[in-house]
Amino acid sequence: DTAVSQTPKYLVTQMGNDKSIKCEQNLGHDTMYWYKQDSKKFLKIMFSYNNKELIINETVPNRFSPKSPDKAHLNLHINSLELGDSAVYFCASSQDRVWGGESNEQFFGPGTRLTVL
Amino acid sequence: EDQVTQSPEALRLQEGESSSLNCSYTVSGLRGLFWYRQDPGKGPEFLFTLYSAGEEKEKERLKATLTKKESFLHITAPKPEDSATYLCAVQAGGGADGLTFGKGTHLIIQP
Question: How many beta-carbon pairs under 8 angstroms link A with B?
Answer without folding.
Answer: 68
